[in-house]
Amino acid sequence: MNYRKALGLVVLLAAATSVGSFYAQYVQGLNPCPLCIIQRVAVMATGLVALLCLLWPLAKQWGRTAAALLASVAPLGGLGVALYQIWLQSLPEMEQPSCGAPWTFRLREAPLFDWYEPVIRGTGNCGVVERVFGVPLPIWSALFFSAVLLWLWLMWWRNRRA
C-alpha cells in the first residue's frame, strides 16, 4: 500500500471516529467533559492534517517523512490527554482534580463561537467513567491515537525506499 492510501485511511478513520463522538453526545445523550472535547478536537485535527498531507509530494521520501511528522502531532497530543484522563479516572473520587470550566464558558466571547459551539459543547465531569462496549471512552481514544501513530509510521517504514 502506498503512503497516499495510508493517509486516506487515516482520514476515513478520523471521520468515522468523529461521527461516533457526535452520535454518542447528541443521540445517546453522553455529556462530554473538557478532556473528552480536547480528544474530540485532536481526532478531528488528525483527520484534517492527514487530508492536507495528501497534497504533499508523497512520491518523494522527504514528502512522506514530512507528512508522517506533521500527521503525528495531533495524535500525540490526543494520546497524552487520553492517558491523563485514564490516570485521572483511576484515582479515588475525592482525589480527582477538577477538569475546569466547560469550553463553551471559556470561549463564549471568541470570534465565530456559534460556528464551532456544537463541537465544544459539554459539561461532563472528567472523573466519571463512561463506557462503550464495556471499555472506558478514554481507552478508546488512546487506542485510536495509538493505532493512527502505529499505522502512519509502519506505512512510512514500508514505503521508505519507494
If you had to describe this structure to a student in words, what would you say it looks like?
It is a single chain. The chain is an all-alpha fold and 162 residues long. It has one domain (3-157): DsbB-like (Bromodomain-like, Up-down Bundle), CATH 1.20.1550.10. It is 67% helix and 2% strand. The protein is built from 6 helices and 2 strands, in the order αααααββα. It has helices spanning 3-26, 34-53, 61-90, 103-106, 113-120, 137-158, and strands spanning 131-132, 135-136. It has a two-stranded antiparallel ribbon. Strand 1 (131-132) and strand 2 (135-136) form a beta hairpin. Helix 1 runs antiparallel to helix 2, helix 1 (3-26) runs antiparallel to helix 6 (137-158) and helix 3 (61-90) runs antiparallel to helix 6.
Describe, in short, the structure shown.
By secondary structure, the protein is an all-alpha fold. The protein is built from 6 helices and 2 strands, in the order H-H-H-H-H-E-E-H. The mean pLDDT is 89.
**What is the average per-residue confidence, as pLDDT, rounded to a whole number?**
89
Question: What sequence of helices (H) and strands (E) makes up the elements?
Answer: HHHHHEEH
Report the structural category. Answer: mainly alpha
Strand content: under 5%
Secondary structure: helix percent: 55-70%
> End-to-end span in angstroms?
11 Å
List low-confidence stretches: none
Query: What is the CATH topology classification name?
Result: Bromodomain-like
Major beta sheet, specifics? 2 strands, antiparallel
Number of strands: 2
CATH homology group: DsbB-like
Number of helices: 6
CATH class: Mainly Alpha
